[in-house]
């Protein structure tokens, strides 16, 4: 039998303490998500409504199919910076008229929806996900353009938005712009470069330069409507494909467009009716230790994530610090690589390489569950070939062409992050649990290494070593690395696609698998040179 049998004692003190700690972290996450939903705050939201406009999340709700899920991405972008958390733009994957789409919506209650460096990164990541996974894009447009004080960090990279939109069109991936308000300067090219443009009467303002700029540049007197109003663009310029009388009508037209694109997924449908796990996903909170240095068995997570808790483990007696095997999630077959005791030895690296090759032979998507401190160090392991064995694993991850989905459960340190398909290895989607840590190594280890290096340097120069200064420096470095490896800090910089509640892991993976099957799912049959 391949059905997992849980050893978790839900009545134990350990389980209760783990659960309590995770609930505290989740409460901190919820507090930040409330700020994201609030956008620019009550004052600016009320002003927006008084102008007869809907907030971006209400526009989204009307756009999506009733009661359908929405996988929000990069919700905490810009957290901990001088910009509003959420970065003034809403992105995510949702279902419109039965079609999974990428939705990009400006939040005009935050500085008029102006784009800052973090909102640019967030929008570009959304368009990249759409391109790689073949998802139609719906833009909910209302933005004053660039946040001008940050133009030095925006102007050059922002051109990539136009590149992505035109490339999507060239790939036959439909793009739709629904313009509710300002779409000025560079932003005017968004409806101009989308396949379909819907403009709202007396609300949409699409022009390269507004009346003040036109006056300064040419001396011409003009007004918003004659320069860039919906009626002008519908009757005169031809930029507008659909003229909407109000916001509800615009969203209706947007849905109508998606309903007529004759969209078909290229990947195979789920191969079986999904059977829920035999164990309650709620119990995952009691599995995760609050200290990321304490290992836990990922099979307990899998028992509460995969269909029917059915997991066919591959090489269970070899390379036991890495759990590998076959399962299904919401009916989609997957291969799973999950760290057990953190460290990757040569055996784990070779096991992973073989497993990844097998998944590519059978066109099976891969799920990486990260909890790793990296590859093993030491004379014995260097002599045993840990570098070349790690290179095999990284080669396999790099050249694998089946979809990769990555969840950072706890630690993701060093080259282990690379071997387990971290951000630098282009997983289709990557999410983190709220207690996860990401860094070159743990804070204590990094500070300790710096201390050892400093001590050796002083000794080589024949200078006395200042123990008190070393203690202060070590404490400061530890605090810095702890802050920089915090899940909120990492997701704020878009090193993942969002933080998810561990209890929602199965749902998030199911939605992600459905999305990646919008395009062809095919493995690579030929790999690069493996260092033997």
Automatic annotation (TrEMBL):
<feature type="domain" description="CoA carboxyltransferase N-terminal">
    <location>
        <begin position="22"/>
        <end position="273"/>
    </location>
</feature>
<dbReference type="InterPro" id="IPR011762">
    <property type="entry name" value="COA_CT_N"/>
</dbReference>
<feature type="domain" description="CoA carboxyltransferase C-terminal">
    <location>
        <begin position="280"/>
        <end position="515"/>
    </location>
</feature>
<dbReference type="InterPro" id="IPR034733">
    <property type="entry name" value="AcCoA_carboxyl_beta"/>
</dbReference>
<dbReference type="InterPro" id="IPR045190">
    <property type="entry name" value="MCCB/AccD1-like"/>
</dbReference>
<dbReference type="Pfam" id="PF01039">
    <property type="entry name" value="Carboxyl_trans"/>
</dbReference>
<dbReference type="InterPro" id="IPR011763">
    <property type="entry name" value="COA_CT_C"/>
</dbReference>
<protein>
    <submittedName>
        <fullName>Acyl-CoA carboxylase subunit beta</fullName>
    </submittedName>
</protein>
<dbReference type="InterPro" id="IPR029045">
    <property type="entry name" value="ClpP/crotonase-like_dom_sf"/>
</dbReference>
